[in-house]
Amino acid sequence: MLGGTVGAASPSGEELLTVTVLKDEHGYGMKVSGDNPVYVQSVKEHGAAWRAGLRAGDRILRVDSIPVHHHTHQQVVQMIRANPSTVLTVQQNASRHKTPITAPVPVNAVGSELLKVPDVRKQAQLESAEQRPTLSNRRHLASHAPRTRTTKRTHPPAS
């Protein structure tokens, strides 16, 4: 049997899950850790334990109907490895039922596109270039400037 059945709630209100994990060519697809109690530390996505319904943080209560509340990590691992399939009863990790966290929406998002943040240096260069008169601009300004007459004065030689 792949998957599991949800049993009664534990005294702490968390649901109990009994699953049969069938070892495949890659093993059980999980790591356990801790002593008294032992927890599922990690589960390989799409591995045997994941397909059975186990998730990281689940607390192992029974292995093949044997209570393991006071067993060490090594003892539980040996019990699981003893057969190609094992029936585990776990207390589900409470966080597995919470709403998943999603990435925040960027502040400057509009529809599906992000607004480009202007480069301040480029903006300053553009404004500076706009203020500098161009050659055609200088000619235009010169044509409308009042004409001043410059006269060349000659001074008598100093004696």
TrEMBL record:
Biased composition (Basic residues): 137-159
Ranges annotated as biased composition (Polar residues): 125-136
Organism lineage string: Eukaryota, Metazoa, Ecdysozoa, Arthropoda, Hexapoda
Domain spans labelled PDZ: 18-87
InterPro entries: PDZ, PDZ_sf
Name used for this protein in its record: PDZ domain-containing protein
Any one biological process term the GO annotation gives: G protein-coupled receptor signaling pathway
GO terms, molecular function: G protein-coupled receptor binding; guanyl-nucleotide exchange factor activity
Gene3D superfamilies (alphabetical): 2.30.42.10
Superkingdom as given in the UniProt entry: Eukaryota
GO cellular component term of the entry, any: cytoplasm
Residue segments, region Disordered: 123-159
